Amino acid sequence: KKINRKPFHHTRAMSNFSLGDIQEEGFKPLRKTFSEGGNRNTHSSAAPKPFSIKDPLHAYYQYIDYRTEIYVNRLRDAVAIQSVSALPEKRGEVIRMMEWVDAWIKKLGGESNLTPNPCGEQELDDGTTAPLPPILLGSFGSDPSKKTVCVYGHLDVQPAEKSDGWDTDPFDLTEVDGKLYGRGSTDDKGPALSWLWMVEAFNELKMDLPVNIKIIYEGMEEYGSEGMYEAVFEQAKEGGFLNDVDFFCISDNYWLGKNKPCLTYGLRGMAYFEVGVECSTKDLHSGVYGGSVHEAMTDLVKLMSTLVDSQGKILVDGIMKDVKPVTEEEDKMYDTIDFDVETYKKEVGVTTIGEKRLRADNKKDLLMARWRFPTLSLHGIEGAFSDSGAKTVIPRKVIGKFSLRLVPDQDPKQIGECINAHLEAEFAKLNSPNHMWVKAHHGAKAWLSSTDHPNYTAAAKAVEKVYGQYPDMTREGGSIPIATWIEDATQMNVLLLPVGASDDMAHSQNEKFNKSNMINAIKVLGCYLHEIAKIKGPKPSLCRCEPLSMEEMMVPGAFARGFRCKCEI
After folding, report:
1. Cα 59 from chain centroid?
2. Rounded CA gap, 277 and 295, in Å?
3. I need a labelling partner for 220 at 20 to 30 A (CA). Which of 15, 229, 333, 404 fits?
């Protein structure tokens, strides 16, 4: 049926909303793919259930569906901006991307400013400097009677070239079978922009935002987030941009699988190291000098072999001392998680290698190994010959790279002390005259939230309303330091609300964002804010009480009445 596309009337009552009233940016109506409830069918097997016509957000969901191609085109514009933070020559593009979003926030009636990065400039490896991109601070609404939700995201991306193995131009968003391929489509431009389109939909439908919204977006996440730690702690001070935020939300991670949504309540931390050995001031010919010198590579290989065994057991004393045992309640949480071991084998590419392809053959042990316990991984050796062919050189200096993923209660500083003591003791056993050193690079503590927190229960209800199924509660093996920084600085809860699927290939070739995930993300975010607005009790940011102990948390109604603080108990 042909739709008569008239200009959208802002004064039209929501109950009289007609999808035929929409006209903007080359809008074209979609084919008949709507269920009786008005929800667009999707390519994902996690297709949402039909929405009840009694749902107060029914018109909102329909509005989002009918603007699908508009959102795709906007994401295409954003992906075309090559905001690669790791490349100094692209720093201007990062700033342009920040300005693009800044302009959109203002266009939608919000307030926004690009705050100078507190670290000013970045010192590059060649000794030169490059300007650090600003940090975007935006907001919609400032009603003191409403709760305030702040969303974090990043607008920079990883490097990408078609010659890297992409099937399409990475900076030209390309749709294939409902999948939107392009660098930054899922990490993190697509999710970050979804918040803006959610606000726009509320504006167009003359629906009041149920909460105040704040936005903090950066442009250096893919290259160390330089300046963000300082910015977060500065803005969290009294009178600062973050001081009145009640709940935080981050959508910068992914579902455990391709089909079922999840919420993430835990992340591992990180401690990265290098150990180096030097035996000479220059590389040597193995035929001429071999046998007459103590070779650095021999020492290094021996040292690295003392860190972890072939079964993944960490061999460094003191690493495991702060790891808490798994509780019975925690153990039960893994029972209902939707995860298939055989599918996982295929995803990681181990189906044809050896008989025992994984270190655990059941769901629970495998997920705990990925999320719940620390690991130590060896990454590479700098200075060694690694090209194809043969080269009989004795390298003068070699540097081994390795890292640990940490769990709650492990401190990167204390881990560094254990690593130093271990390697010094092991090197002494070699009786080598060579020079050995250990260097600690970046580190971050693990992060763990509570799935019982009102922020999580609100998000879970929103996901269930859109998808028709309760989300899995998951942890992740990776690290997102900003989550810890925000909680430490503000003492407010941080929610990780992933909207992309596990096969989105962030950081890799052919990164994509399913069109269905993009549309449903906008729906979930709007529903999430409505659920947040229903939470009873004082604004958490106004209460600076001492958090409840675990014993106090067991008091019936403690969460409902107290938001984990003592003043309401």
Report:
1. 30
2. 9
3. 404
| C-alpha to C-alpha distance for 459 and 462, rounded to whole angstroms | 5
Choose the catalytic residue: 93, 102, 156, 299: 156
What type of residue sits at position 87? L
Task: Compute the chain's Rg from CA coordinates.
Answer: 26
Q: How many CB atoms lie within 10 A of CB 526?
A: 26
Q: State the catalytic residue, choosing from 188, 221, 246, 299.
A: 221
* Tens of pLDDT, residues 163-199: 999 999 999 999 999 999 999 999 999 999 999 999 9
Q: What is the dihedral of CA 64, 65, 69, 72, to 10 degrees?
A: 60
For this structure, is 156 an active site residue? yes
The pLDDT tens digits for 215-234 are 999 999 999 899 999 999 99
Q: Per-residue pLDDT tens for 19-54?
A: 444 444 543 333 333 333 334 444 444 666 555 546
DSSP-derived 3-state class of residue 166 = coil
Amino acid at the residue 287:
G
Digit-coded pLDDT (tens) for 340-374: 998 888 888 887 766 667 888 899 999 999 999 99
- Parallel, antiparallel or unpaired: strands 512-514 and 121-123: unpaired
What is d(CA 97, CA 156) in angstroms, rounded to the nearest whole number?
8
Q: How many CA atoms lie within 13 A of 367 on its CB side?
A: 24
| Strand 179-181 to 512-514 pairing | antiparallel
Taking the C-alpha atoms of residue 413 and residue 273, their distance in angstroms, rounded to an integer, is 12
Write out the H or E segment, with its range, that includes residue 352.
none
CA distance 264 to 246: 19
Following DSSP, what letter does each residue of 387-446 receive, concatenated? SSS---EE-SEEEEEEEEEE-TT--HHHHHHHHHHHHHHHHHHHT--SEEEEEEEEEE--
DSSP 127: S
Per the structure block, which two tokens stand in for 105?
A: 């926030």
pLDDT in tens, 507-553: 999 999 999 999 999 999 999 999 999 998 889 998 766 666 767 76
The number of beta carbons lying within 10 Å of the beta carbon of residue 335 is 8
Asked if residue 188 has a cis previous peptide bond (ω within 30° of 0), the answer is: yes
Task: Check: CB of residue 462 under 8 Å from CB of residue 524.
Answer: yes
Q: What is this structure's pTM?
A: 0.83
CA nearest 161: which of 151, 171, 152?
171
Q: CA of 190: how far to CAs of 48, 71, 219, 499, 516, in Å?
A: 19, 9, 15, 9, 12
